């Protein structure tokens, strides 16, 4: 073979290798120096009727994540916006790939006015916030509610709705849905077998023994996304040790993952692994596969958020009657009562700081947070919103009814943690991997907490990641 | 004719070169540039940080873990794929017992060839989804078959001891068919009289394969080697869809690390570009080494 042939082949090999690495270059750095014509160019004077100073004829662009909720609800909200500002021309688009669609526009300095940043192709919020790409939504909170007389928008929201979108005290992300995280079972299965849901850990283990004896696996979980199991573990720890367990984790405090609460919780949850109360093969299932196994009655319990019911709609048998319950109490020494449940706002909406019509974007959020907007959403997609009391008069499916009931019982004892919003990598990669090892029985509780702590320490030591604190 | 040559060349060469430069070369060069910044991807601001990203990379255990997996792929994938490809191609083209000089395939060659080639027709995404169901720990084909034999199969993709090898097996499965056809075509091009001559000299099939067929196929094998080596440094789509690098990073590959760093768990485009640049040099080195190592004198048939 001649030398020239070799060079030719090497060049060919280089071309073959090109696509992968050029992938990143493709979304190359933009022009730069665009300090933005966005913001206040499109503002009118603030009046009592128009508290956000919306220029009524300014066009508004809305980009919706096209996922489980679809896009119809957003079209309805846009019609409501047009009721108030009929001259505004609204551009609506929906995509399953938010990041790929919008990344070049953020770099270019021409983002849309409202973005529903959600789904697997979601843009990492730490990145957006640390680059000042988001407008402060505090104004919306202080504005009067659109259709609840005498109350500001803030007054109409459920507890924890503001906290989860706040970074160092600035409210930057409005999470519109209200999600409750707990342990799910089928009330039909339980009634048929004469089982009653347990309120303490000892009772729960006893119940698991009973379930296993009946030939059903007590638990299953999404082995491909084992972080789903970190939720009941941390919830148990917070109930045992109080909400400071969560703030320590969120603030990346040293040894936050090895607090007494976390230790007690990890020891307790190790029991279901040790005693073989998990459906065989669960570590190899993804979330849909494990939820389907649960719906088929192969397992009695599963940990999930309140989106479970709509996600499983197609495969849930008639009369299955799913219901959510809080994590069991460890004992009498628990700081929070059994009824306390993790509730948090989800489905993030944001107003980019460099959008052309920031005031319009804020007003759009106010429309969404009106009683009418929220009720319409709940009716269309069967999910709760952060607007308190918006489920009244709306008929809910069984799972969601149980969610509302659990939320009422939990009352002021509800709790939440926000580290996944601050540091996506910590939950998605590191805690996830640790949970996978723990719940498949390859490591014990002490090693599990070590692994989580190691992940948190890695994030804390990484100077390229912006850190946030909450009280 | 002669005086009209240059305008013609310019007209036909400049536009494609320009397009190639803008859409292929320039993103590439920009990737190099971005890899020296701390760009986070959602604003136009980026500071020059020199080689800091590469220094971080050297200390990044997750990247090393991914590179280790790619190294295993690099060793196993070409070897097994080419081995199987050669074996099947030989069977299909000269494994039969009848006819002159033993150079016909086994019965049903055409059907086998079709079956082997079948995975090539499927999109990689479909392959990943099909195999994810095959590996399903409870309802999957694999564990159901094992169960029929009384063996309790593991939860394949959920077990760090198996996940990586399961993906590797699919990677081989989806590649072999193409090389069977490629090698088969090359074998067809070998003049039949060579085989007749060695048969007359009394060579066994085994000797024929190793002393005649493979040396005559060497150019094709070499190309296959390079292609597979490049595929081994990628492996991204299958890994992402089947295991997403898990459990506990056991099936991670460097392409996935790059994707995850840019679009997945964090948005560090500068750092991800640095990983991309490393991938580029790894691929290039592997290609050059494979060519050097496989260099031989070309055999001309005429």
UniProtKB/TrEMBL annotation, chain A:
Q: Which domain of life is it from?
A: Bacteria
Where in or outside the cell?
Cell envelope
| Cleaved signal peptide residues | 1-22
- Single GO cellular component term: cell envelope
Q: Does the keyword Iron-sulfur apply?
A: no
> Which keywords describe this protein according to UniProt?
Signal, Transport
Q: What family does the database annotate?
A: Belongs to the bacterial solute-binding protein 1 family.
Q: Which PANTHER family match?
A: ARABINOSE-BINDING PROTEIN-RELATED, SN-GLYCEROL-3-PHOSPHATE-BINDING PERIPLASMIC PROTEIN UGPB
State what protein this is by name: Carbohydrate ABC transporter, N-acetylglucosamine/diacetylchitobiose-binding protein
In which organism is this protein found? Polymorphospora rubra
Automatic annotation (TrEMBL), chain B:
Bilayer disposition of the protein? Multi-pass membrane protein
Please indicate if the UniProt record lists Lyase as a keyword: no
Q: Which domain of life is it from?
A: Bacteria
* Alphabetized UniProt keyword annotations: Cell membrane, Membrane, Transmembrane, Transmembrane helix, Transport
Q: Which InterPro entries match?
A: ABC_transporter_permease (IPR051393), MetI-like (IPR000515), MetI-like_sf (IPR035906)
UniProt xrefs under CDD domains = TM_PBP2
Q: Where in the cell is the protein located?
A: Cell membrane
Q: Where are the transmembrane segments?
A: 71-93, 114-131, 162-182, 224-243, 269-291
Q: Which SUPFAM superfamilies match?
A: MetI-like
Please give the Pfam families that the UniProt record associates with this protein. Answer: BPD_transp_1 (PF00528)
Family to which this protein belongs: Belongs to the binding-protein-dependent transport system permease family.
Supply the name of the protein. Sugar ABC transporter permease
């Amino acid at each position: 073979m001649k030398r020239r042939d070799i060079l030719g082949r090497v060049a060919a090999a280089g071309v073959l290798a090109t696509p992968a690495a050029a992938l990143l270059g493709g979304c190359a750095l933009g022009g730069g120096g665009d300090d933005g014509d966005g913001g206040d160019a499109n503002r009118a004077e603030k009046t009592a009727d128009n508290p956000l100073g919306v220029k009524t004829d300014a066009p508004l662009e809305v980009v919706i994540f096209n996922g489980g909720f679809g896009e119809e609800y957003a079209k309805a909200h846009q019609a409501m916006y047009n009721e108030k500002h009929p001259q505004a021309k609204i551009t609506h688009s929906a995509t399953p790939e938010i990041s790929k669609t919008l990344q070049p526009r953020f770099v270019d300095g021409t983002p849309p006015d409202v973005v529903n940043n959600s789904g697997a192709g979601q843009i990492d919020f730490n990145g957006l916030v640390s680059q000042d790409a988001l407008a402060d939504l505090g104004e919306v909170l202080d504005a009067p509610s659109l259709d609840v007389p005498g109350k500001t928008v803030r007054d109409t929201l459920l507890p924890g709705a503001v906290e989860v979108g706040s970074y160092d005290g600035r409210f930057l992300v409005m999470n519109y849905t209200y999600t409750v995280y707990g342990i799910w079972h089928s009330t039909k299965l339980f009634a048929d077998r004469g089982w009653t849901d347990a309120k303490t850990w000892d009772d729960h283990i006893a119940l698991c023994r009973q379930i296993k004896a009946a030939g059903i696996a007590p638990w299953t979980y999404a082995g491909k996304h084992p972080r789903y199991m970190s939720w009941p573990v941390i919830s148990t720890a917070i109930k045992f040790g109080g909400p400071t367990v969560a703030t320590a984790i969120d603030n990346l405090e040293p040894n936050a993952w090895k607090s007494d609460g976390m230790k007690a919780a990890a020891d307790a949850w190790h029991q279901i692994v040790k005693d073989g109360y998990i459906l065989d093969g669960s570590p190899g299932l993804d979330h849909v596969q494990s939820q389907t196994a649960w719906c088929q009655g192969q397992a009695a319990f599963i940990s999930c958020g309140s989106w479970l019911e709509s996600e499983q709609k197609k495969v849930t048998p008639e009369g299955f009657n799913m219901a959510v319950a809080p994590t069991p109490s460890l004992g009498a020494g628990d700081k929070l009562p059994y009824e306390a449940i993790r509730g948090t706002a989800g489905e993030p909406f944001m107003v980019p700081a460099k959008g052309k019509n920031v005031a319009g974007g804020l007003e759009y959020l106010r429309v969404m947070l009106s009683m009418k907007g929220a009720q319409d959403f709940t009716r269309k997609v069967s999910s709760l919103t952060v607007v308190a009391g918006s489920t009244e008069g709306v008929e809910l499916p069984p799972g969601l009814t149980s969610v509302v009931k659990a939320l009422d019982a939990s009352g002021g004892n509800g709790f939440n943690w926000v580290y996944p919003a601050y540091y996506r990598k910590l939950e998605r990669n590191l805690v996830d991997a640790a949970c996978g090892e723990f719940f498949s029985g390859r490591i014990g509780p002490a090693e599990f907490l070590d692994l989580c702590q190691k992940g948190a320490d890695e994030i804390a030591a990484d100077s390229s990641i912006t850190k946030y604190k909450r009280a | 004719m002669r005086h009209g040559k240059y305008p013609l060349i310019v007209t036909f060469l400049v536009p494609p070169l320009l397009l190639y430069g803008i859409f292929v070369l320039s993103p590439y060069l920009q990737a190099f540039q971005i890899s020296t910044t701390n760009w986070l991807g959602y604003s136009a601001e980026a500071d020059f940080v020199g080689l800091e990203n590469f220094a971080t990379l050297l200390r990044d255990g997750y990247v090393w873990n991914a590179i280790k997996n790619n190294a295993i792929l690099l060793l196993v994938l070409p070897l097994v794929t080419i081995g199987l490809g050669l074996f099947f191609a030989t069977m299909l083209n000269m494994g039969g017992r009848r006819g002159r000089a033993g150079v016909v395939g086994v019965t049903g060659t055409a059907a086998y060839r079709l079956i082997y080639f079948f995975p090539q027709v499927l999109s990689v995404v479909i392959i990943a989804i099909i195999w994810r169901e095959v590996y399903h720990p409870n309802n999957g084909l694999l564990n159901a078959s094992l169960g029929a034999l009384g063996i309790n199969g593991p939860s394949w993709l959920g077990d760090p001891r198996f996940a990586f090898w399961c993906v590797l097996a699919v990677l081989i499965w989806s590649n072999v068919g193409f090389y069977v056809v490629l090698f088969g075509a090359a074998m067809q091009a070998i003049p039949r009289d060579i085989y007749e001559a060695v048969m007359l000299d009394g060579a066994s099939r085994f000797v024929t394969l190793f002393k005649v067929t493979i040396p005559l196929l060497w150019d094709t094998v070499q190309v296959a080697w390079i292609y597979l080596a490049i595929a081994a440094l990628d492996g991204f789509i299958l890994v992402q869809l089947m295991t997403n690098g898990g459990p506990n990073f056991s099936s991670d590959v460097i392409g996935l690390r790059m994707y995850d760093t840019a679009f997945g768990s964090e948005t560090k485009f500068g750092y991800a570009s640095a990983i991309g640049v490393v991938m580029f040099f790894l691929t290039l080195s592997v290609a050059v080494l494979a060519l050097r190592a496989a260099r031989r004198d070309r055999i001309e048939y005429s």
